[in-house]
Design goal:
Blueprint: H1 2-7, H2 11-15, H3 17-23, H4 28-69, H5 74-89, E1 93-100, E2 105-112, H6 117-120, E3 123-125, H7 129-137, E4 141-143, H8 156-165, E5 170-177, E6 180-188, H9 197-259, H10 264-275, E7 278-282, E8 288-292, H11 301-310, E9 314-316, E10 319-326, E11 329-337, H12 344-382, H13 386-403, E12 412-418, H14 424-438, E13 441-445, E14 448-454, H15 458-473, E15 478-485, H16 491-507, E16 514-516, H17 522-527, H18 533-551, H19 555-564, H20 569-576, H21 580-594, H22 601-618
Parallel strand pairs: 15-16
Antiparallel strand pairs: 1-2, 1-6, 2-3, 4-5, 5-6, 7-8, 7-11, 9-10, 10-11, 12-14, 12-15, 13-14
């Protein structure tokens, strides 16, 4: 027996010895002694088996502890624990479920030995089935045959999964972290089985290791996540610091440029170099002030409005647009091209550039306003009475004008501008800006805006001003002009004539137009101080006079006879001693030369007056 025990013989071989001795003819006393000895040997065998089993369990627990010490992959550790549970308990299958605190149920996490896909995807509500009861009560439960065990709340889903896997005997123990139950560890057989207290204790030990593994993995993941967030926060802080440093450095560079007296062109070039793109700066009316590294480009009205509202740069139509603002007042815009991708740091830098541009434009405006005041004062002095102007011209006026870049020896026109009262301040500012561009002077006098500009075509100047300023202000602008004049002694008279022209435009219901006295027809002849009768006659009758001079016809004489006899064809043909058809033919020719509306009331008045003036100029009574 000792030899058999030493050789590790199984219990079956030990139990067979009494029968073998009896078969060999042993005496009754010897057979009884052999049976007693066999019982002792079997008892020793059971103790040795328990030690070996306990040794295997301890080895498995130590291996599990080692796995936990080198925890790298939670799934791998959990799979090893489940596999050891299945091996040590000698079951067909082992599996582990975890609680879901959001869904308030428990779900399958790891399986070993499972063959059913439905079983591997089971979810159990708290209190349902054996596992749900363990998860809810935090106590181990064992069932010799789950199918017939009525201690548990059976559901169709759970029973179907268990039946598909073929499970009968099931043992479940809780996974506990402190007072919290996080899941359940199971061992199960496909045949009925009674689980011993030793088996329950062993599975509980493995469950404790599994719980430690899960908690350690959670803490490790939280640590890693925290480190990742800290690294991201540090990276963000570094990037933010770098962006702030870069933006501050760029702001300093641009500010120094402005303080050194650099122009808008220099600032635009510096912004383009800082951002690696093209830059264009525009005034409030869209006119280009400066451009660097790009072709002509303008900001869309929608982008500019959005930037004005949000105070940030806006990307649209392949360009970045930023409104240049002083508070809520728009000073212009800045456009960046060639940078479809503009990180937040560069976008902030672009917006800082707009602030510096605003500062530069404000300084320019301040200088311009000062210059406009000086120009306005000079213009006011020039428009006083002509005697004083002539007296002062030998001294200060011409010199003051020359210092402002205005040569009064050149021909100049005077324009008087008017709009609705609420917009007159804007009209004055816009006119002053136009005056600087034209090399002239602007100011206000007697409630009207006045412009003095070099040129010898006052009518064209008036029309251009009326059209352009109406677009800028979004309201009608009426402009009366006079000129040209040479020297300061004529400017007061030109101003008075331009003012009369403005008044006449309003009276003739031509508000929103621009014209000079000559373009008002006979009204201009009556209002003008320097009535040019010949020019007026030529403007009204020019084509007819030229036709008569070329062909020796009598269209002018026929027109005069027609009007002198009350536009009656019969009396006109008697005065001309021709047939009435001849008169009709001549008047048709006049219509071709002067236009189909030549005989409307307003045109007829102009034509009749021009005929009289032409007759007076010739000093004759006949055609």
């Amino acid at each position: 027996m000792l030899d058999l025990l030493a050789a590790g013989a199984p219990a079956e071989q030990l139990a067979a010895e009494p029968a073998r001795s009896r078969a060999g003819g042993a005496a009754a006393a010897d057979a009884a002694w052999i049976e007693e000895t066999t019982e002792v040997a079997l008892s020793v065998r059971r103790v040795l088996d328990q030690y070996r089993r306990r040794e295997a369990e301890l080895v498995a627990l130590f291996d599990t502890a080692g796995d936990l010490a080198g925890l790298r992959d939670l799934d791998a550790v959990l799979r090893a624990i489940v596999r050891r549970a299945r091996t040590l308990l000698g079951t067909d299958i082992a599996y582990l479920t975890l609680n879901d605190p959001l869904a308030h149920d428990t779900f399958m996490r790891v399986t070993d030995g499972s063959v059913s896909a439905a079983f591997q995807q089971l979810r159990l509500a708290m209190g349902e089935g054996l596992g749900g009861l363990v998860a809810q009560t935090a106590r181990p439960y064992a069932s010799t045959d789950y199918r017939t065990d009525q201690r548990f709340h059976h559901t169709g889903t759970i029973d179907d999964g268990v039946a598909e896997e073929g499970l009968r005997g099931i043992l479940g123990v809780p996974l506990r972290v402190g007072q919290e139950i996080i899941g359940v560890l199971f061992a199960a057989d496909r045949a009925p089985r009674e689980f011993t207290p030793e088996a329950i204790a062993l599975l509980g030990s493995l469950a404790d290791h599994a719980a430690v593994a899960i908690d350690s993995a959670r803490l490790l993941e939280e640590t890693r996540s925290t480190l990742t967030r800290l690294e991201a926060a540090n990276a963000t802080a570094r990037a933010h610091s770098q962006a702030l440093h870069r933006a501050s450095d760029a702001h300093d560079r641009l500010t120094k440029l402005v303080l050194r007296g650099a122009g808008i062109d220099d600032v635009a070039a510096e912004i383009a170099a800082l951002l690696g793109g093209g830059v264009a700066v525009h005034d409030t009316d869209g006119s280009e002030l400066a451009r660097s590294g790009t072709g002509p480009v303008t900001a869309s009205a929608e982008s500019l409005a959005a930037s004005h509202t949000d105070g940030r740069a806006v990307y649209a139509d392949a360009v970045w647009t930023c409104a240049v603002l002083a508070g809520n007042e728009a000073l212009g815009s800045i456009v960046l091209t060639g940078r479809a991708d503009l990180p937040e740091a560069d976008r902030s830098l672009f917006e800082r550039a707009a602030l510096v541009t605003a500062m530069l434009l404000m300084m320019r405006r301040s200088v311009a306003e000062t210059e406009d005041r000086v120009r306005g004062e000079l213009l006011d002095d020039l428009l006083v009475d002509p005697v004083a102007s002539a007296r002062w011209d030998g001294g200060s006026l011409t010199l003051r004008a020359r210092r402002l870049g205005v040569d009064l020896a050149r021909p100049h026109a005077v324009a008087v501008l008017d709009c609705e009262p609420a917009l007159r301040l804007r009209l004055a500012a816009e006119t002053a800006r136009r005056a600087r561009g034209l090399g002239g002077l602007a100011g206000t006098r007697h409630g009207h805006v006045v412009l003095l500009a070099p040129g010898d075509v006052p009518g064209a100047l008036a029309r251009t001003l009326a059209a352009d300023l109406a677009r800028t202000l979004g309201a009608p602008v009426t402009v009366g002009a006079a000129g040209p004049g040479h020297g300061p002694e004529h400017l007061a008279a030109l101003h008075a004539e331009a003012l009369r022209c403005l008044t006449a435009l309003h009276a003739l219901d031509r508000t929103g137009e621009g014209a000079d006295i000559a373009e008002l027809g006979f009204i201009g002849v009556l209002l003008g101080d320097r009535a040019d009768v010949g020019t007026y006659v030529e403007r009204v009758l020019g084509p007819v006079l030229a036709y008569d001079a070329e062909r020796g016809t009598e269209l002018v004489r026929t027109l005069r006879a027609y009007y002198d006899h009350g536009a009656a064809l019969s009396r006109a043909k008697d005065a001309l001693h021709v047939h009435v058809n001849t008169v009709v033919q001549r008047l048709d020719r006049v219509a071709q030369l002067l236009g189909p509306d030549w005989n409307t009331p307003s045109r007829a008045l102009e034509t009749h007056l021009a005929l009289r003036l032409h007759q007076l100029a010739r000093g004759t009574d006949g055609g």
